[in-house]
């Protein structure tokens, strides 16, 4: 059991908490933009047409009072497109089955897809495939955003391929069509296992009346080309004809009920009987991470507030102390944890990590990475003692480990530390960031400093006088650009994580993701690459 | 001495008699119909004999079967309870002929009082005041009135003065009884009362007497031994009635003068002596001002006997048994102490014409009960008298209430030093009772007990019509619905097959509250709630704070006052009980199935029953209000009439057909 030394009465704690709360207010404000959809005017118009909002559809689809984890809510943040990327994706429980749900938001530019919509949708399909979660599409989309078609058309084909590959893998795909799903969009129901269409609302055709008129001269109308009645009675594209939206959601739930899903990798955990709350208040997670990431913090204070009963069996506590490793359970799920303690990874830490990851693979135990790293140590001594080899061992172990990985970026995620601690490129099942996180090749000041040193050296080599004033300006500009591009909203907007979460939700989010991952079978033992000793 | 007693009855009265038998060391024998095989009265008896069938005529009214059961079980005495065969002289004779002891008066006394027409004649002769009687003969003419009666009920022409009451001569319990205010309706009322009486009692004789409106219904308990001693054990006021059936009874009566009381006692003793009565019996009177009129004599134990037992400190069943064994009553009856009120809890819907309810009684709990089937003795060493709360119940949690028998679930009796205190105790006990599964008259009873007029002692047979008590005030629906929703949410979490350990309704991006909808007392009610990190309400009514929620109990602070809401769920029915009151809510599905359309003009069966008569043929034109068919359910006739003029476009039933509630009986195609 972890004995917390956090002094919640201290000024430091209060300052850290205040700073975190300010960041959370910003997070709420950004997420509120996604929730607002196309704004009051379009929401009102949508309701007036007797239609449910995308989020209302999702809420009615999932089991009452069950949790729902929305994924990538800040997608498209910092781009020309609205926050949320006009689609909602997430993991919810339908008839006791964990499913990936995607719902296009027709109040945002008619629910049309932009490049970020595409990336968010593809990420949701990846999650469905990797964790073997049924995929439910709540369809009402005006198709591609034509001005950005060059970013969508060619890669967008993967949407349809994903659907049939999910089906081929035995993962059910369900399309509930509430409105337009035309042209390319028609292949969403077309490629799905189960299709429900709402009477007098669904419109599914390759080409509408004007296009048909142009192509063949045939006179036609929406209903005969793609109405729900036609598809249910004539074409057979619709398996179920719903009388209205509520009926479609009801039928959708009935379909899931009859999928007879079993969780292949279930190893216990997740139930109310498994809840042994941490001994320390999750609320205190707000006051742990310093605003200045140069100041280290003890990750055991975090672990004590997210694992069951604050029980943590530490592995090699006396060796490679700037990486904390150990075993725990979270909502009853057994896990191994790797957490950075003092930012820097030395050779010992890298070797300890490689051993720990192998042990977790031997016992098929999922791994949680709690990132706060400035990277692998540099310097003559370290290079000579093989820091590259040892870092490579750790990256080898992370890359080839087959147990599910879950990454939380609490603070810094710099350099190859991002890789060794299972950053986005290492395909953890899920990756979430705290509002305090920063990810970049190195710290903004360091990066600016490096550019300055390199620039100065280059000038000197050419025999030029280095412009010190320009250097100051350059450093400031680079520092602020790198700073802004290493912040979590920016990275979340580019889909480099699955969402920015409130630190107090960490245990809940991990509990949900561990349970979701249990839908896929326990992985086969890992075969690692050659370890360079 | 009686060694083994068979009770030719069911439900609470059988249990009541068994209780006394256990006290006395008498073995008990129950009889039961197939519908009652699992009833408490069967499991509590030492021996039990099945009466094959479910209809009363095949079971509790089957004299040879019951006598055979008594012989088979080795019983040496038979107690008839009340209702069923309790006032059937042929049954008493059959019991005696079989060599068994009959707990009741001599069959001749039963016969004398069995026909109301005869009884009135006899009583008039004995000097007991009676109302004039008019006996309709064939063709609607009225037979001469009995000698000794006043002429007040008739005009000189011999026609009755309206309003009048049509009563079955063999009647009881309101069956075969009709109030007639319009001379034109008399013929049909007599015919229908005859049919009902014939079906219920096997005797279609009816008579007509003036209706004494808003009178008090007061009865006198008498007890007579075989040695000539006749006691009166006070009067019982039973004025509060619905459909001529008593629902609230008390002793002493709050509204009669000592002079009237004396006159009643005197008349009761005269009545008993006139027929050589032996055992426990009750003489019923109508009282209005100083006018008293003999109604009938019940030659058996009354439903409402517990109030007399409480106030007089006696066990009437024990006295019945001892009299049957030949014991002598003391010369003087015991003295009275305090006041007692009984209410009859029925499975019926006062708001829908007292329609009887049937189904599973999921939960039945009355808090603070001091005694069951006996006089409470809870006073300990401190109280001068052991007052308390008594429950005589025929059902337990989980009992099935069927369509075949009386819908009375239980009697709740409070006894205390004075009437107001007793009414308060009883009202509170009823209000806090948990009665789940069936609509009952509980709220009505509470409303009566708390009504100003009742507390003032202003009770009469028209009480329920005169006062608005059938639709009592309902507690705040939104708070109850919220409590129900929060308990259901806790249940949803507890039952979740995945992620059950996560916080209820957790969202990383909250966009809207959880919503739950119910059908409540005032129609559809929808509540929204979202739980916060601390388990409290992050979204919900501002005046409500959530303190805790489990599937069975929700604790809310409403406008600063803490309240506990016990919540129970049975399929879609949700019951919420609290100190603020009780409420039944029906959970409405979030995603309802598309509605099956019922053809306009369809006539639906209002309850399960048997089609008695079909008055029209398919294709026949009908006018608005025209009777289409008659349904018999719960021993009552229910007429189904055309809602509007039109043509019978479909007729789905024939006489004798059993129908479920909601079944389409016929379709009337409306015509302009």
Low-confidence stretches of chain B: 146-157
**Helix and strand composition category of chain B:** alpha+beta
Percentage of residues in strands of chain A? 15-25%
The average pLDDT value of chain B, as a whole number, equals: 89
List low-pLDDT spans of chain A.
Answer: none
Radius of gyration of chain A: 25 Å
Give the % helix of chain A. Answer: 40-55%
Cα(first) to Cα(last) distance of chain B is 76 Å
Q: Which shape of chain A, going by the Cα principal axes?
A: globular
| Biggest sheet strand line-up of chain A | 1-2-3-4-5-6-7
* Largest pleated sheet of chain A: 7 strands, mixed
Helicity level of chain B, as a percent range? 10-25%
How would you describe this protein?
The complex is a heterodimer of chains A (533) and B (672). Chain A is of the alpha/beta class. Chain A is 41% helix and 17% strand. In chain A, a hairpin with a 7-residue loop joins strand 8 (313-315) and strand 9. Chain A is globular, with a radius of gyration of 25 Å. The mean pLDDT of chain A is 94. In chain B, helix 4 runs antiparallel to helix 5 and helix 11 runs antiparallel to helix 12. In chain B, a hairpin with a 2-residue loop joins strand 14 (279-288) and strand 15 (291-298). Helix content of chain B is 23%, strand content 32%. Chain B folds into five domains: 4-103, Rossmann fold, CATH 3.40.50; 132-210, ATP-grasp fold, A domain (Dna Ligase, domain 1); 216-466, ATP-grasp fold, B domain (D-amino Acid Aminotransferase, Chain A, domain 1, 2-Layer Sandwich); 477-587, Glycoprotein, Type 4 Pilin, CATH 3.30.700.30; 602-670, RNA polymerase II/Efflux pump adaptor protein, barrel-sandwich hybrid domain (OB fold (Dihydrolipoamide Acetyltransferase, E2P)). In chain B, strands 15-14-11-12-13-16-24-22-21 form a nine-stranded mixed β-sheet, sandwiched between helices. An eight-stranded antiparallel β-sheet of chain B has the order 28-27-26-33-32-31-30-29, with helices on one face. Chain B is of the alpha+beta class and 672 residues long. Chain A binds chain B through residues 31, 34-35, 55-56, 59-60, 63-70, 73, 93, 96-98, 243, 246-247, 249-250, 253, 263, 270-275, 282-283, 331-332, 499, 501-502, 504-505, 508-509, 511-512, 515, and chain B through 488-489, 492-494, 496-509, 511-512, 514-516, 533, 590-594. Chain A: Residues 20-271 form the CoA carboxyltransferase N-terminal domain.
């Amino acid at each position: 059991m972890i004995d917390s030394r956090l002094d919640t009465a201290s000024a430091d704690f209060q300052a850290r908490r205040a700073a975190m709360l300010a960041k959370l207010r910003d997070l709420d404000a950004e997420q509120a933009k996604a929730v607002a959809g196309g704004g009051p005017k379009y929401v009102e118009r949508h309701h007036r047409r007797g239609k449910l909002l995308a989020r209302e559809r999702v809420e009615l689809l999932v089991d009452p009072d069950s949790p729902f984890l929305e994924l990538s809510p800040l997608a498209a943040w910092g781009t020309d497109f609205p926050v949320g990327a006009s689609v909602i994706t997430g993991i919810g429980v339908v008839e006791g089955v964990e499913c990936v749900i995607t719902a296009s938001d027709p109040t945002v530019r008619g629910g049309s897809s932009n490049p970020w919509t595409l990336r968010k949708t593809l990420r949701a399909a990846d999650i469905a495939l990797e964790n073997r979660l049924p995929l439910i599409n709540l369809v009402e989309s005006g198709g591609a955003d034509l001005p950005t078609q060059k970013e969508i058309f060619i890669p967008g084909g993967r949407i349809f391929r994903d659907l049939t590959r999910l089906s081929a893998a035995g993962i059910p795909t369900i399309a509930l069509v509430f409105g337009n799903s035309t042209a390319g969009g028609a292949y969403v129901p077309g490629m799905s296992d189960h299709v429900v269409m709402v009477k007098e609302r669904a419109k599914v055709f390759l080409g509408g009346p004007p296009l048909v008129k142009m192509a063949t001269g045939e006179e036609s109308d929406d209903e005969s080309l793609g109405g729900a009645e036609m598809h249910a009675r004539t074409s057979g594209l619709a398996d179920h004809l719903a009388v209205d939206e509520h009926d479609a959601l009801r039928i959708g739930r009935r379909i899931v009920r009859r999928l007879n899903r079993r969780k292949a990798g279930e190893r216990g955990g997740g139930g109310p009987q498994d809840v042994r709350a941490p001994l320390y208040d999750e609320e205190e997670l707000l006051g742990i991470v310093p605003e200045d990431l140069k100041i280290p913090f003890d990750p055991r204070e975090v672990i004590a507030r997210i694992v069951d009963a604050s029980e943590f069996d530490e592995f090699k506590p006396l060796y490679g102390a700037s990486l904390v490793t150990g075993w725990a359970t979270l909502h009853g799920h057994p896990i191994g944890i790797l957490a950075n303690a003092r930012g820097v990874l030395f050779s010992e830490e890298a070797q300890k990590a490689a051993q720990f990851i192998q042990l977790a693979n031997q016992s098929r135990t999922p791994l949680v990475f709690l990132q706060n790293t400035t990277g692998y140590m540099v310097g003559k001594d370290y290079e000579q003692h093989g820091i590259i080899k040892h870092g490579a061992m750790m990256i080898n172990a992370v890359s080839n480990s087959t147990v599910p990985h879950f990454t939380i970026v609490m603070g810094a995620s710099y350099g190859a530390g991002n890789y060794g601690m299972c950053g986005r490129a290492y395909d953890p099942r899920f990756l979430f960031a705290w509002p305090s996180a920063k990810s970049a090749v190195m710290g903004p000041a360091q990066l600016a400093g490096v550019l300055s040193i390199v620039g100065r050296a280059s000038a000197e080599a050419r025999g030029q006088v280095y412009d010190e004033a320009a250097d100051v300006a350059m450093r400031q500009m680079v520092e602020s650009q790198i700073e802004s591009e290493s912040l979590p909203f920016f990275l979340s907007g580019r889909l480099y994580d699955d969402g920015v979460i409130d630190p107090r939700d960490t245990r809940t989010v991990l509990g949900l993701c561990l349970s979701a991952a249990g839908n896929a079978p326990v992985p086969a033992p890992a075969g690692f690459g050659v370890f360079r000793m | 001495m009686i060694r083994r007693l068979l009770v030719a009855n069911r439900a609470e009265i059988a249990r009541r008699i068994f209780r006394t038998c256990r006290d006395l060391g008498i073995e008990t024998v129950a009889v039961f119909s197939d519908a009652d095989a699992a009833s408490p009265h069967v499991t509590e008896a030492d021996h039990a004999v099945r009466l094959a069938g479910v209809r009363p005529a095949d079971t509790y009214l089957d004299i040879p079967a019951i006598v055979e059961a008594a012989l088979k079980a080795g019983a040496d005495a038979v107690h008839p309870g009340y209702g069923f065969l309790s006032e059937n002289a042929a049954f008493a004779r059959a019991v005696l002929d079989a060599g068994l002891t009959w707990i009741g008066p001599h069959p001749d006394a039963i016969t004398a009082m069995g026909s109301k027409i005869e009884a009135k004649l006899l009583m008039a002769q004995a000097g007991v005041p009676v109302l004039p009687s008019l006996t309709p003969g064939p063709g609607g003419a009225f037979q001469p009135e009995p000698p000794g009666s006043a002429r007040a009920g008739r005009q000189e022409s011999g026609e009755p003065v309206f309003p009048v009451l049509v009563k079955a001569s063999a009647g009881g319990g309101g069956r075969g009884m009709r109030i007639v205010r319009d001379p034109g309706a008399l013929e049909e009322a007599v015919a229908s009362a005859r049919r009902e009486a014939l079906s219920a009692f096997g005797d279609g004789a009816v008579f007509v007497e003036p209706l004494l409106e808003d009178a008090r219904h007061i009865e006198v308990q008498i007890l007579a031994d075989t040695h000539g001693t006749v006691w009166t054990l006070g009067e019982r006021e039973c004025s509060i009635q619905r459909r001529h059936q008593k629902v609230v009874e008390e002793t002493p009566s709050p509204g009669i003068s000592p002079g009237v009381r004396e006159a009643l006692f005197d008349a009761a003793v005269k009545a008993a002596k006139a027929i050589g009565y032996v055992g426990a019996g009750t003489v019923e009177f109508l009282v209005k001002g100083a006018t008293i009129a003999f109604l009938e004599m019940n030659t058996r134990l009354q439903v409402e006997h517990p109030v007399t037992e409480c106030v007089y400190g006696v066990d009437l069943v024990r006295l019945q048994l001892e009299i049957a064994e030949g014991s002598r009553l003391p010369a003087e009856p015991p003295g009275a102490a305090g006041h007692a009120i009984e209410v009859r809890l029925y499975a019926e819907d006062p708001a829908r014409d007292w329609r009887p309810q049937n189904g599973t009684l999921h939960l039945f709990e009355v808090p603070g009960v001091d005694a069951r089937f006996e006089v409470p003795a809870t006073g300990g060493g401190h109280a001068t008298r052991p007052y308390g709360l008594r429950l005589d119940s025929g059902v337990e949690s989980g009992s099935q209430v069927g369509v075949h028998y009386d819908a009375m679930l239980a009697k709740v009796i409070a006894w205390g030093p004075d009437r107001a205190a007793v009414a308060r105790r009883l009202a509170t006990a009823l209000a806090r009772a948990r009665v789940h599964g069936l609509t009952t008259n509980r709220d009505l009873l509470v409303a009566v007990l708390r009504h100003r007029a009742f507390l003032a002692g202003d009770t009469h047979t028209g009480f329920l019509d005169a006062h608005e008590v059938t639709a009592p005030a309902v507690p705040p629906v939104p708070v109850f619905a919220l409590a129900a929703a929060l308990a259901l949410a806790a249940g949803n979490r507890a039952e979740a097959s995945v992620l059950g350990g996560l916080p209820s309704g957790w969202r990383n991006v909250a966009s809207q509250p959880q919503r739950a909808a119910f059908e409540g007392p005032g129609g559809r009610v929808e509540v929204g709630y979202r739980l916060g990190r601390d388990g409290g309400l992050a979204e919900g009514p501002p005046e409500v704070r959530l303190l805790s929620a489990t599937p069975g109990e929700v604790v809310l602070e409403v406008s600063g006052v803490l309240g506990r809401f016990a919540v129970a769920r049975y399929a879609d029915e949700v019951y919420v009980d609290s100190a603020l009151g009780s409420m039944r809510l029906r959970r409405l599905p979030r995603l309802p199935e598309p509605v099956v359309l019922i053809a306009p003009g369809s006539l639906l069966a209002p309850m399960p029953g048997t089609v008695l008569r079909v008055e029209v043929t398919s294709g026949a034109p009908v006018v608005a209000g025209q009777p289409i068919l008659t349904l018999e359910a719960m021993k009552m006739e229910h007429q189904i009439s055309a809602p509007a003029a039109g043509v019978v476009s479909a007729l789905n039933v024939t006489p004798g057909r059993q129908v479920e509630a909601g079944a389409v009986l016929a379709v009337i195609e409306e015509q302009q």
